[in-house]
Amino acid sequence: MKKVIVIGNGMVGYKFCEKLAAHPLRDQFEVVVFGEEFRPAYDRVHLSEYFTLDSADKLLLASRDWYGENNITLRSGEMITSIETETKRVFTHKHDYFEYDYLILATGSAPFVPSIKGVDKPGVFVYRTIEDLDAIKDYADKLKQEGKFKASVLGGGLLGLEAANAAKELGLQTDVIEFSPRLMPRQLDKAASDMLQSKIESLGMKIHLGKNSKEIVGEAGIEKIDFTDETSLQTDMLIISAGIRPRDELAVKCGLRTGERGGVYVNNKMETSDPAIYAIGEVALYNNGIYGLVAPGYEMAGVAVDQIAGGEKLMSPSIDMSTQLKLVGTEVASFGDPFIENDEITAIVYENKQRGVYKRINIVKDGSKLLGGIMVGDSSDYNTLFQLYINAMKLPENPEDLILGSRGGESKSALGSVLDLPDTAQICSCEAVSKGTICDSITSGACCTFSDVVKQTKASSSCGGCKSMVTDLVTATLKSMGQEVKETICEHFEYSRQEMYDLVKLHSIMDFDEALDRHGKGHGCEMCKPVLASIFASIYMETANRQAPIQDSNDRFLANIQRNGTYSVVPRVPGGEITPDKLMVLGQVAKKYDLYTKITGGQRIDLFGAQLHELPLIWKELIDAGFESGHAYGKSLRTVKSCVGSTWCRFGLHDSVSFAIRIEDRYKGLRSPHKLKGGVSGCIRECAEARGKDFGVIAVEGGWNLFVCGNGGATPKHAILLAEKLDDDTCIKYLDRFLVYYIRTAAPLQRTAPWLDKLEGGIEYLKKVVVEDCLGIAEELEAEMQELVNQYACEWKEAIEDPQMMKRFKPFVNSDETDESLVFVPMRDQKMPRPW
Amino acid sequence: MEELLKNYQSVADQHAIHWIKVGQTGDFPENAGACVKYNFKQIAVYYFTRTNSWYACQNLCPHKMEMVLSRGMTGDSQGIPKVACPLHKKTFSLEDGSNLNGEEYSIATYPVRIQEGNVYIGFVD
Description:
The complex is a heterodimer of chains A (about 850) and B (about 120). Chain A has 25 helices and 38 strands. With about 850 residues, chain A is an alpha/beta fold.
């Protein structure tokens, strides 16, 4: 058994333990870890979230138990004070010693504190550990009691801005001081820095660039900072975040080779000048650099584990320093070489000061390769650009499309298909799974479904952001092996949603049991039941009351379940127009039932905190006042948002409110594969944000322009023009056709934008179907919609009028009691559930 | 919050000491859940019509400690009867209470008997 000692229990030290614990030769090693902090390793990347978390434990990378369960001895709160390389021993501050065969230095770094006069005054802090944050918070609380609110952060780099955000979260008026003439000088150019600065300053922070601090002045605490240019800044506390210094004291003392400006020299095996000692993370000096990001540190941990286990893994020759993150609420990304520009290399820049967006890409002049870039304000293109850069892939004909989007013509992703990526391309960055690994898991026969692949490779098991890429890879790989890939609903129905839709219609299947008997097996599940419910609703316009048990859990109770199991209630407010009388009814009901009240994004009012048994009582009052269900709980039409339009607005061209109400009234209750949202704007200023909806109508001279297949959410998409200058009736006619065609053909939980992405022929084909009627089904689609419209009924009215249906709102079958386990806590004159 | 969990320990049919009548079969929805109360416990009861089977488990979802499982959707996974929590769709076997998403949480299950149209649940306390 070999003895491994790890000095340092930070993120990289922990990663080393995690990788060693999972190694096949793990049993050959006895592992002892020393950490000088008393907590086990925690997530320093998300340190600024500490103030919003209720417990520091949520930042832990693994619980203390984890180390025991994996046979790793964790000695936290114990410091190593020296290393004796000849005898292979380390000594602790308690003068104990431990022997090693392999020693891993993962001591990380300490904040760099410049030698400014007065830097030792109370009120000066660094920003690195949870203890630092606690000290900052305590001091801030003390200041606030004295009526002082000004904090400054020295350092406008990545960490400095994180610290500034933390100070702002504490309710302090925060200034940032940076020595260089721009923010994040390692990642951003001047224009990007300017954009970020104006974004940050719009949130009330102030940025001072090109400032060299001379002295921190103050009697009891800090009063001001003097700069070398004879200016000064008033402040009550100072947080220093001006870079890092590798913690190489131990290495220096025992004679290991170190760099001039700090850091323990390592080769590409992570070996130091003593072959029994390895260094990883921010203390390691590799290729003349210290790398303050976790990704290279994690890679080093993997190399070190492999090396001591006799493997041959080597560190990548060049370290990728690309980052994408949110700083003070602003998206910022930087990849490759963000600054490079010379005779062969040219930059393409897009700057939009109105929206606060700056993008830059650096490409080889012949347009063949992407070398790096910067994004501020909108980093949604980062993944695509990063893949193009890291895999040195061929760029599209007009490289500017990469940051501007395709203008005119058929839109196509710059990446093309995920299949075009090389095998080395990293698909899941959380778990570092490459395209090759995913494809191999299928071609080797080990996996044959998406869930097999997730289990085996761990891809998509963490944040899930790569799920669609993994699905596409699985489907394509199976196809290439000659296997038929069917997008079946679930294990109970071996049909796609569209096939089931056709079967239900063709055989006039009336309920779920009949569908299971004829075309399925087993009991069904939470996947297929809502799909069938949606199909029945779309074909027969049946409400969620008729087959309540197969409805998704929100539809079953006609309300949206919230954190503590209570519900929210959203009555329909068509087009967002509401009379003062009805508004007062909502207020009275909310008051009577003590409901938390909030305006929704869809111009409605959401009433939260209703208990199951209160739902019918609340709805009785709402219905008596003329309200109807808003279907906020369903995969169905939500709202048609409107701006006030030509009746009041001096710019309005047409009456957008009346048209929105007409559209919302027409499609209310319509169930669909996913939720549907609409918008109507009275002019091209687009105040209703109609292009962010599944369908959007915008007034222009001569009629309405109809846009389709947009959405907000995680993958925002602007709706695309389907037809121009329509009159009211034609617009409704096209909408009828579009909606029924989508409802018939989309996959479960597929919104209109991804549906259009997958539709062969794209928007041009959709135009042919909807406008030109190339399939000859337009009349049928319209008739189907008219039938659904005719059969609409408010399902809440239906429910409260039927005692049998009311049974489901009784909390306990065997008792008339209500659920007393619910706890609410007060918040800004209202209430909220007790937090998790 | 975790103390709440201690109220719920699985009971095997042969170990049940008290059989508590919680209602008549017609009081419970078909192929869905409903909740009953016994002392300080909230118990979810499910009736699967296709196999004419009854199941009972804790109403408390161990993931976020909320009393919600009776309002989840039922179904089966490879023939194992299950319930999906309405909050985050964690699914649990109604046969042994194990989590079917490969996570650590599990739930307590209780035996159910039907006699003369009445529904009884077995407890040890």
